[in-house]
Every structure is written in C-alpha cells, then in structure tokens.
Amino acid sequence: MIKTRKIRKFFPAIKAGRIISNNAASTQIPIQLLDLLKKLAVQYDNVHRGQSKSSIITTEEFEASYDTIAQFIGAPSRRNIILYRNATEAINSVMYSLMTEFKDGDNIVTTFMEHNSNYVPWYGLCKEILPKFGINVECRIVKFDKDTGELDLKHLKSLVDKKTKLVCCVGASNFLGTKNPIKKIREIANSSGYIQPGGEKRSYLLVDGAQLVPNVFIDVKELDVDFLVWSFHKMMAPFGVGALYAREELLQRMKPFLYGGDMIAEGQVSPEKVDWNVLPWKFTAGTPNILGTILSAQAIRLMMDFALNPGKHKYFMTDKKLEPEEIKKAMDNIEDHERVLVEEAMKMLSQIPELDIYGPKDPSSRTSLVAFNLKTGNPFEISEKLSKVGIESRAGCHCATLAHHYYKLNPPASCRLSFYIYNDLGDVKKSCLAVKKYVQSK
Ligand SMILES: Cc1ncc(COP(=O)(O)O)c(C=O)c1O
C-alpha cells in the first residue's frame, strides 16, 4: 500500500480534519502545489505573447507541461495533447472538430454506463445539430449487466457495423466502478469496416478516462485509442484543466474547435485565407489556463513521487523525463492501494443487508469507489446524515443518469463513497461505519 502517513501531512484539507470520501468528484490539492501557485503568481507573464524574461520562462514551463502530460500516458509527443477546461469540454471539442466528417446514415455507439459528458454531446450532435443540415446519424447505446456491472460486449458487437464512425466508451464508470476492457472494445471497433476520411478502415475509439487516468496505468499506444480525455481536478491539481489525447494524424486533419488568437500560423491571416498554427497550438485559441497547466503537469510529477517514494522529490519540479517503467510502477502502486481500500469498503458495506451495492463484486475489477442505495430509503438522506458526522460522500446520479434510469431507480440517484491515494483504511472504516450506524438508526 502507499505510505499514506507520509502523504497525508501534505494535504491541508486532511490536516483540517476532513474525511474526504468524495474523490471521484474532485481530489484535494497538496501544499507543494499551493506553494508553487504562490511562487508562479509573482513571476508569470502571458505565454507566446511577450519578450520579457517572465514571459519566456512561463512559456518554457507551460510548453514543457505538455511534454510531461504526453509522457505520462505514453503519447508520442506534446503534439498529441490538447488542453481544455475539463474532460467535458475535451469531449465536446472532438464532437465539434469531427462534425463535418459525419455522413448521412452513420452511427455513433456509446453505452448506458456513460457519464453525461460522453453521452449528451453525442445526443446533441445526432438529435439537435446534424439533422439541421439534413444529416441523420444514429446514436446507439450498449447495455451492461445489472448484476455484475460489466459492459455487454456481445451487444456492443451487434451494434457496431460499417456505418459506425465512432465508439465512445467510459474507461471506468463513476457510478459502477467498472473498469472496461478497452482492448476488447478496440478490437470490436477495429472490425467495423467503417471507412474514415483518411482511408483508414475502422471506427474511431474515444475513451472517457476521467476515472481511469488518475487511478490506473495508461499507455495510449498500447491501448491504441484514437481519443482519450480526462480532468486534472481528479488528480490533485486545481480546477480548470482537462486533457484530450488524440492521434496526431487525426488532429492534423480535424477542424479546430475554437477559432481565434494564437491558434493561427504566425502572420498567416488575410481576408482570403487563415493558416493554422502547428500542433498542439492549433487547438489552443486565446490565452490558455497557463498556471493551471503548469500545476497539472506538476501534479502528475508529484503523484509519481507520492506513489514511488513519498516525501522525496524525484520528479516534482524537475525536468526529468517520466520513464514508462516508473510510471507503470507508480500507477500500479496507486491501483493496488485503491484496491485494498475498495475491498474493505465492499466488505463492510456488504455486511449491511439493507443495502443494494452496484457494480462488480470483485474489487480488482473496479476503481476505488462504491455506490449503493438503501433498499427502502433516500440516498440524499444518507449523504446528509454522513455529512453531519463529518463524512464527505455524494448522493445523486453522479451524471450517470442513463445508468440510474437503467436500474429504474426513483429518484435516479445513489450514495457514493470514493477514495484516493491519501485515504487510508481508517477513512474507509469510518465512512462505512457511519453508513452502518445510519442504517441501524432507521
Ligand atoms: C467518468 C467521468 N466522465 C466525465 C466526467 C466529467 O469531468 P469534468 O467535470 O471534469 O468535465 C466525470 C466527472 O465526474 C467522470 O467521472
């Protein structure tokens, strides 16, 4: 397990006595990043827009952040990384950038376990936008097994055909916890026979990695995904930065999502023609979230240090290349740690007969979250009661609205506990015990 004792002292929120069990929504910021923010606040200038030493240094740090982010997921280079405000915006950017490529009769395949971020944009494209241009694209939705929380791969295979331009799938569900078999999904998308504009014969695969990238080792080359998105506020960084990884040839061909300053080739704007900047800046219109980007990359470096040797800074605030074996070791440590936490949570919660627990029974098939309902009761009341005893959980549909309706839940909601690298077994036990006490008090 990760040496949480050595990590916890770096988190002001934990030192303040909070029991943070809502990490699938957002994680907390360590002191190292808060100190870095203070330092940057007195030395920054805008990037790509100044000759001052401040602007040059900030530009270097900003651009190097893209290298760190690319290395972390095994992407070939910074040209594969586009940063937006969050994972949701990153998915929307793919939707808008690909919009002109869709042909009448195409389809998109997504799943019933998606976060609304990876369903509603495709719904909007198919139902609201493309029909206005006389183009009909169907949005197909794959079922999952209500008992095991597993995606129904047979159903997926039956929905994917030679008209499937895109398969959009969550890497790990933020409601069920299920980690999806991305390689198998890739195989199915490969076999569709869809002819893409570049001549490639397969469906694109977009993976929503919001609950995967912070918790599990990811190598985009090995997984062969076309698009991967995630957010940094779920991995210790402040709010405001989400990432899109995409294959370079796709980004070269795709239309920009946002148009404006800095995304154009230097001086190449005339009434007749505008040329785009090189990647990744072609997709970075306007002043970006400069400090957020630097903090996000440093959050990765710090997370690696926490997972490998807490208290020692090998990667944080250095320009050391992140080595794939070390990334794997760090992320495997995080995954192991979280498995122990969720195993304990599952064990304690499953001893409460009044609860329905969603998702895979095997802790190693899930990320470190567990959602449940009282057979006769309201999840909001559980979360409110937990909050009164200092346990931070979340009740609601967690934006996995399709899945909650799929279970016919009324209200479409559940209570969720979710843990991260700084949580220890004590946090898990206190949270689950509070649930037990609440149920007994009913
Ligand atoms: C699986 C999943 N996808 C997408 C998102 C959306 O992330 P963001 O709010 O950062 O856009 C979340 C956030 O909870 C998530 O859990």
How would you explain this protein's 3D organization?
This protein has 442 residues and is an alpha/beta fold. It has two domains: 4-28 and 324-441, Aspartate Aminotransferase, domain 1, CATH 3.90.1150; 36-295, 3-Layer(aba) Sandwich (Aspartate Aminotransferase, domain 2), CATH 3.40.640. The protein contains 15 helices and 15 strands. The chain has helices spanning 4-8, 12-15, 31-41, 53-72, 87-98, 120-129, 153-159, 182-190, 220-223, 248-253, 290-308, 324-350, 379-388, 401-406, 425-441, and strands at 19-20, 81-84, 107-111, 138-142, 164-170, 204-208, 227-231, 242-246, 264-269, 274-276, 355-357, 369-374, 391-392, 394-396, 414-418. Strands 2-8-7-6-5-3-4 form a seven-stranded mixed sheet, with helices on both faces. It has a four-stranded antiparallel sheet with strand order 11-12-15-14, with helices on one face. α3 packs antiparallel against α11 (290-308), α11 crosses α12 (324-350) and α12 runs parallel beside α15. The two termini are 36 Å apart. The structure holds pyridoxal-5'-phosphate (PLP).
